[in-house]
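Whether sequence alone determines local backbone shape is best considered at the level of individual chains. When preparing material for the folding task, we compiled for one chain both its residues and its backbone structure tokens. The sequence in question and its structure tokens are set out directly beneath this paragraph.
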Amino acid sequence: MIQSMTGFGKATLSLPDKKINIEIKSLNSKSMDLSTRITPTYREKEMEIRNEIAQKLERGKTDFSLWIEKDGTETVNPINKDVVAAYYKQIKGIADEMHIDVPADWFSVLLRMPDVMSKTENQEIPEEEWNQAHQAIDEAIQHLIDFRLQEGAALENKFREKISNISELLTNIAPYEQERVEKIKARIIDSLKKIPEVEYDKNRMEQEMIYYIEKLDINEEKQRLSNHLAYFIKTVEENGKGQGKKLGFIAQEMGREINTLGSKSNQAEMQKIVVQMKDNLEQIKEQVLNVL
């Protein structure tokens, strides 16, 4: 079964003092294009998270977010009293030494000084918490994969519909083939008759006619296109990696055969059928870009 590259996954881990939220989404891309927004507490785990996402999702433009919601008491950073005291002594000492006035509002000055507010988010993550968070990350990734599979099933139905349309249009060409040959013969002979006093070797004329008609034969193109259609569906049904790129190559080959049919058709009815084939193929090519 094919997977789409479009997906979304979410997971939440509730702990006694906080809630860890994880979201991951992806869109189509030729390679793995991963961007992350991770709370400072978990930055040390970023490479591990990146490697796991790349391994499981393979490719796609992917955005990963991990943020923490703390309870009311935890969201306020504590004031570092020792640092405040040290700054106070330094400022007062400098003011006394240089005979200048001390600040009128000590708190506004001291609270703006570096490192006064303790930064708790840089603390090391407890192993038990990381194990639980890791499971939540895996859960979010799996939700995205499930989403991709659902989108892939919808793509598969679309592909089957369009391939079936092209196959049916291919069979619709057959009635016009013999009629086309007869019309070509009649047109050439009629053109010769309109030229006065022209003599020609009928045997040579027949040989040239056969050569010309053979150049317009489309049986090989029809057979190759039919094979490509079957191979496309077979690839859709496979379980493996890189199906999107393989389907893209097959669609290109289908396009070559359809274009050749168009250049050889030499008849309005057949050309209309070829245009319809191209329309269905373009829709396939657009959707193949979303396949993993």
About this structure: The mean pLDDT is 86. Residues 152-288 form one domain.
